[in-house]
Amino acid sequence: MPKNSDHPQPPDHTVTPRYMGIPSFMRLPFIEDPAALDVAMVGVPWDSGVTNRAGARHGPREVRNMSSLIRRVHHVSNINPFELVRCSDFGDTPVNPINNDKTLAMIEEFYQPLAQAGATPLSCGGDHLVTLPIMRAIARDRPVGMVHFDAHTDTADVGFGDEKYHHGTPFRRAVEEGLLDPKRTIQIGIRGSRSTGDYSSFSEESGMRVVYIEEFYELGVDRVIAEARRVVGDGPTYISFDVDGLDPVYAPGTGTPEIGGFTTHEAQRMLRGLEGLDLVGGDVVEVAPPFDQTGNTALVGATLMFEILCVLADAISKRKGN
Ligand code: MN
Ligand code: MN
After folding, report:
1. Which of 40, 62, 279, 282 could bridge across to 239 with cysteines, CB 3.0–4.6 Å?
2. Domain for residue 1, yes or no?
């Protein structure tokens, strides 16, 4: 593994204790120049797309805090993302908590310079609607595939009358806008009571591979990984992780919990199984700290971001020919 000591690094925690300082993602320096970066970690503190229990607007701040526990090297893959690529905390997007149309435009605009500079975003929501403006910025030129972990398909059409933009609709909109290739999309962990009998029909009719939680446990982690790799193939692929895909035992701090989900360890194994794909971005969304005063859901969110960061850094490093 190449040593790149000139890359931005978290301070050595054997010298500077991890509880010290102003909390940034993974204790990284705060760098706002996209040209200086390979991976930009971005907070999107906005949950005005939520249809029920709000709170994910507080996700980035708490995930930053708990991410101070993260060290440098992945204990299974041995990847040190901070040596492989140039990472920073890129800050939070601007938001308008009472105007969704304006905020969708503000988020997209925030990501445009990253996309233009070729920096890869790793984002922390916010509710799941934030993935739509991120995709508008990074998938303008060609649709991406997606490995999507969630209890919900998020491919509903409209709600509360004819409102098209809420956290249950981003991936239907992304397909309609040509940002997401449904045939290269897999949704893992789907479950929960439905409002209608045809809840997931858009996912299935558009060609997405929908892995309900029952099939997840029938197949097992390794075969689900193999299926995800088959579906997305070798094209550009985005990872979107809604923490409500996890069982609420592991992630109670979320707005729409559904019992009977996968475990944190199963999630970690699945993310590790995406190593080697052509990964172009990722996010962890729907961490809602007000529902989990212990902070554990934020720790889960931070650790899943580290898992995604490791496979992203590996993919970027290989694209750069390292
Ligand atoms: Mn979701
Ligand atoms: Mn969900």
Report:
1. 282
2. no
Number of domains comprising the chain: 1
CA distance 288 to 278: 30
Residue 195 pLDDT > 90: no
Q: Does 195 map to a domain?
A: yes
CB contact set of 10 (below 8 Å; sequence gap of 6+): 26, 27, 28, 72, 82
Cα–Cα distance, 244 to 180 (Å, whole number) = 21
Ligand nearest to the CA of 283: 1
Distance 168 CA to ligand 1 centre (A): 7
Range of the domain at 206: 25-319
Strand order in the sheet with 120-125: 87-92, 39-44, 120-125, 279-285, 237-242, 144-149, 180-190, 209-212
Ligand 1: distance of its center to the CA of 54 in Å? 13
In a domain, 12, yes or no: no
Q: What is the per-residue pLDDT across 7-30, written as a single tens digit (0 to 9) for each?
A: 999 999 999 999 999 999 999 999
Give residue 33 CA to ligand 1 midpoint distance, Å: 30
Q: How far apart are alpha carbons 81 and 12 in whole angstroms?
A: 15
Place of tokens 């910025």: 137
Distance from residue 233's CA to the centre of ligand 1 (Å): 23
Domain CATH code at residue 154: 3.40.800.10
In-domain check, residue 290: yes
> For residues 240 and 146, is the Cβ–Cβ distance under 8 A?
yes
What is the pTM for the complete model shown?
0.97
